[in-house]
Write a structure and sequence with these properties.
By secondary structure, the protein is an alpha/beta fold. 31% of the residues lie in helices and 18% in strands. The chain has helices at residues 75-83, 111-125, 143-154, 169-173, 179-198, 223-229, 248-253, 279-288, 305-308, 315-327; strands at 28-36, 42-50, 59-65, 89-93, 131-141, 160-164, 268-273, 293-298. Strand 3 (59-65), helix 1 and strand 4 (89-93) form a beta-alpha-beta unit. Helix 2 crosses helix 3. The longest helix is centred in the middle third of the chain and has 20 residues, at 179-198. The protein is globular, with a radius of gyration of 19 Å.
């Protein structure tokens, strides 16, 4: 691995240092690509497309964002690997300040930067000669579901949006009122002085630095998250934490889904499962949207099963949704 010298520059990865939680299909090409956000942060992303793709033809394209704290080598890559087999050019990216993307302090985040990640991905993929600029869709997994919707609400180039077991992190963070808001607000505000004096931004390590074989009892999180992020199933060295402590302040104060009803007449598909703990986010969001919209509830599966379980994720539904959206 070659470390970036410029703090805004993404890190270039040698083949020996690549680490993916899934195997690339033999019919699919994966290329490392790099481009910048409007803030000048260089993004590290992977471009997926079929090996037999005719680059003299223009194809529909998708940009895929990860769960909160996740990276492109996990869920986004799983989705991209599958959808590239069905005629899409797919870009899976590391958000700014995360993974191999540039930006300091590491793990910095705000609603605006996560939305910009999607628009910057559209900037890049829309410049490829074999991509149809009028057929670009966004797909967000977990927290990126909310970010994808927020990005589409302010970026008309995104012609269709799908979310998978979505979370709306800013709405969740903004729900606290009174003492429940005042206490963390005071804590994070004081943390800004500590970070300034230390010259670095504090963050919490959520998952172990090496993959575990068992899920311990009495976890401060849902066991299914530990089962994915902390075991060989989904563990990745760049997905051990979420955001810096002070980043929480912006999530407590800014919403991203206030205008999602204005995505219409562009279509939206919300995927969830009968038993996913995140299902209420999809249901609440569905009520906010205008037509055309669809809420698809798959048979019983955990929330994190839609990160990597290709036997459970309804890829045929995603394929049909986007192809129909682009045909109209």
């Amino acid at each position: 691995m070659r470390k970036a010298v410029n703090p805004l520059q993404a890190t270039r990865v040698a083949p020996a240092d690549e680490y993916y939680i899934f195997d690339l299909d033999t019919t699919v090409v994966r290329e490392h690509v790099y481009y910048s956000t409007r803030y000048g942060v260089e993004i590290a992303a992977d471009l997926y497309y079929a090996k037999d793709l005719d680059k003299s033809v223009k194809y529909p394209a998708l940009v895929v964002g990860p769960p909160f704290g996740g990276v492109k080598e996990q869920g986004p890559g799983v989705y991209a690997n599958q959808l590239a087999q069905h005629g899409f050019v797919v870009l899976a990216f590391d958000p700014a300040y995360h993974g191999y993307s540039g930006g300091q302090p590491r793990y910095t985040g705000s609603p605006d930067t996560y939305l910009e990640d999607f628009s910057a991905a559209v900037d890049y993929i829309g410049t490829l000669d074999f991509v149809n600029r009028d057929q670009i869709g966004a797909l967000g997994i977990c927290a990126s579901g909310g970010f994808a919707l927020g990005a589409a609400a302010q970026d008309a180039r995104i012609k269709a949006v799908a979310t998978s077991v979505m979370y709306d992190i800013p709405s969740l963070a903004g729900m606290a009122t009174g003492i429940d808001r005042a206490v963390p607000l005071e804590q994070y505000s004081q943390q800004r002085w500590t970070d300034f004096e230390n010259g670095t931004a504090a963050s919490v390590l959520y998952y172990p630095e090496q993959p575990q074989t068992e899920v311990p009892e009495d976890l401060p999180m849902l066991p299914e998250f530990f089962d994915f992020y902390a075991t060989k199933r989904g563990w990745h060295p760049h997905a051990l934490t979420n955001i810096t402590a002070v980043s929480n302040l912006s999530f407590m104060n800014f919403q991203i889904t206030n205008h999602i009803h204005e995505i219409s007449p562009r279509p939206v598909l919300l995927l969830t499962t009968e038993t996913a703990h995140s299902r209420p986010f999809s249901e609440t969001t569905f009520e906010k949207l205008q037509e055309p919209k669809e809420l698809y509830v798959a048979p019983a599966a955990d929330h994190v099963d839609f990160y990597d379980r290709v036997d459970l994720i309804p890829f045929a539904k995603l394929e049909t949704f986007f192809k129909n959206a682009f045909a109209n």
